[in-house]
Amino acid sequence: MADTHKKIGNLSVHPLALGGNVFGWTADEAESFAVLDAYAAAGGNFIDTADIYSVWAPGNEGGESETVIGNWFASRGNRADIVLATKVGGGQPEKRGLSANAIKSGVEESLRRLRTDYIDLYYTHFDDPSVPVEEFITALDALVKEGKVREIAASNITADRLAEALAFSDESGLAKYAAIQPHYNLVSRDTYEGDLADVAARHGLAAVPYFALASGFLTGKYRPGRTVDSARAEGAGKHLESERGRRILTALDEVAAAHDAEVATVALAWLNAQPTVASPLASARTVEQLPALLAVADVTLTEAELKRLTEASA
């Protein structure tokens, strides 16, 4: 099989980034280990989490996902095989933000939970307009110089603020964002396409889209008259209410049939074909959900199929 890995800075990543948001939330440690084992066994090497996963779940404080992944590394002895991404700046009110102190303490807590001495890709999770880009880029650069972080990245940031941060990195010779994690999928294109994607392309940033399957809508399991038992069912089901959402599903069904592939695989393959995209992000609560996601490595859409999906989602 041809090598389908793409580059994020100096990192080489699998075309499916495995989301860790479900670990310690809807998947307990045993279920999480099973998913992680199956992903790695299939050649996957790119795992994404955050210091706040899963603070939204009753009884959780945040850090549960990092702890599960850290325990998996310790159990399997495979840390060097994985490109590990986590995030800072989205924590509890007393920790939230991108001040130099928040970044410095945040990385230490993540390293402890992840049971590692380095993070491959470290994201600023949410922009903090109260902090000048000079402060957080300088703090992130210090982590790179210390060997605690290999590459830095940004999520949930405006095009203007991203451009400002990149310009400061260039002018000062400090670490520079190598990637962006935008909300981006077939039903949500204006959250990335346009100014934000243009800045990313101009500076050579790789995109790792989150909500790549629109909370499950783009798996095809949401259909008129069908009830889905999922923590995200309400959000995903709303897309069925629009003519555009139904049009996208029809196009996905057609292309999936042509490839004898799952709808989810085709939705991810469309993303992977977009400019700047290195690896869309999707999570699996069970091992059974993984094959359709991993199959993105084996599906290449034709120009006509890409056009069909792009026009259906316009």
Automatic annotation (TrEMBL):
The keyword Oxidoreductase applies. GO terms for cellular component: cytosol. InterPro entries: AKR, AKR_Detox_Biosynth, NAD(P)_OxRdtase_dom_sf, NADP_OxRdtase_dom. The keyword Oxidoreductase applies. GO terms for molecular function: oxidoreductase activity. Residues 15-312 form the NADP-dependent oxidoreductase domain. Keywords: Oxidoreductase. PANTHER family: NADH-SPECIFIC METHYLGLYOXAL REDUCTASE-RELATED, OXIDOREDUCTASE-RELATED. This is Aryl-alcohol dehydrogenase-like predicted oxidoreductase. It comes from Streptomyces netropsis (Streptoverticillium netropsis).
